[in-house]
């Protein structure tokens, strides 16, 4: 496999995503649907997108929703193992095609239903009685209704029900014929899930990320402090599909020791069960970092120091590396070792994902952009102007450090509290056009599919080979930004 070419000779300084553009090449890929976006990271999820292990973002709803569309979420290292176990079980019990409904019982109050409905982007709640769907609720059903009224007084009972063997395209057509937005999926009178029109279209375009038993995939993170072996054993027993060994400075001795311990436990587990779970480790940004982590057991390297939206590392320390160059160099070094990289952080537009993949990333990890969605873990809040948002925070912020050290003594907590390299509170607004994570996945993947066709690539391996990258000035970048009003 070759790698990305520069239009002119590459500069001697490092570049980030905004510094570069891709030039189109002659292509025989005539449809964007002909592009296969399967990750080249060796894990092989059908979509090369990973949700970052951040407490404000990645939980079971996020994991399930993203895996149904082919990506994978990493449950954070700060979540206790018993809670991770419950989350993994819930993800693996989720239907691989139909959405998990928000459900209430007939005696639930309107207030309870209103508090739950925004947890998922599909915007409805199913009223369930003994496993049977007896009603459907949409936000407009709550208008001018007392919050203490019971949902059975306002629910609709004339909804469309289809069996779970209905093809998604047939679900779409049935919804179209009945002028409806959502169908309830049930077998033998028992609720299975729901499907919206958009969900039906998505089910025909995306493939779910599945484990060997045909269940949705989910990853989990291990920090380098504490009982690394115990945590690894617990995550493997819980059936995490990927282990992510993660710390700010991945190229340090404690990381190498932790990684060796994780590998040891993983290998014991593999010889006992026949299941070899891949290990992702980071973060690094240099060839020597890649080589040391590969030597200690990493299958995939997580690349990125300081590009994250919640990150203050570069301002605090002056350390980091512009992300496009970091990914390019680390991907090349990893490839030479038969390994791959995840490009972690700094993604703000679909183009950034495309450029990371062109630079050779197997998958791209996204955190903050997904914070402002219905599926992130935070509670939905509304600002004084009525705009919905979620609160997010960095994993090295004083807030996260306080949480991580909650079981330490006061002195240790005070010492740890001196170091912070992240933002403790930020507002991530829900984009009214794309309030759900799947809306963002559509936005990103349509951009990346299109990028691949401009390069004449049908797969991400070909994209990495064929992409031609140029360096642009800040006005070159500015020229590419659309205007929403006249100049
Ligand atoms: N990608 C990035 O640029 C960054 C990502 N993060 C994310 O934040 C989360 C928390 O990471 P982390 O702070 O490592 O938390 P951890 O709780 O895992 O602590 C890391 C350990 O490494 C030691 N350490 C040595 N040098 C450093 C250093 N420069 N920065 C941090 N720790 C160091 C610390 O010891 P002692 O406290 O005694 O120094 C501590 O015991 C992770 O998810 C990480 O990915 C954080 C910062 C940057
Ligand atoms: N320096 C810090 N980096 C952080 C912190 N919390 C998370 N991160 C890193 O950012 C990415 C996600 O990047 P994003 O731009 O998509 O938000 C994440 O995977 C971590 O590597 C932090 O507090 N400080």
From TrEMBL:
Residues involved in NAD(+) binding: 246-248, 304-306
CBS domain residues: 155-212
Active site residues according to the UniProt entry: 311 (thioimidate intermediate)
Keywords, comma-separated and alphabetical: CBS domain, NAD, NADP, Oxidoreductase, Potassium, Purine salvage, Repeat
Catalysed conversion reaction: IMP + NH4(+) + NADP(+) = GMP + NADPH + 2 H(+)
This protein's record includes keyword NADP: yes
Stored SMART domains: CBS, IMPDH
Pathway the protein contributes to: Purine metabolism; IMP biosynthesis via salvage pathway
GO cellular component, one term: cytosol
Cofactor list: a monovalent cation
Class of the enzyme per the UniProt entry, highest EC level: oxidoreductase
Gene Ontology BP terms: IMP salvage; purine ribonucleoside salvage
One Pfam family linked to the record: CBS
Sites where the protein binds NADP(+): 246-248, 304-306
Known EC number: 1.7.1.7
Cross-referenced InterPro entries: Aldolase_TIM, CBS_dom, CBS_dom_sf, GMP_reductase, GUAB1, IMP_DH, IMP_DH_GMPRt
Binding site for K(+): 306, 308, 311
GO molecular function per UniProt: GMP reductase activity; IMP dehydrogenase activity
HAMAP family linked: GMPR_GuaB1
Role played: Involved in the purine-salvage pathway. Catalyzes the NADPH-dependent conversion of GMP to IMP.
Family to which this protein belongs: Belongs to the IMPDH/GMPR family. GuaB1 subfamily.
Annotated protein name in UniProt: GMP reductase
Protein's organism: Raineyella antarctica
Source species taxonomy: Bacteria, Bacillati, Actinomycetota, Actinomycetes, Propionibacteriales
This protein's encoding gene: guaB1
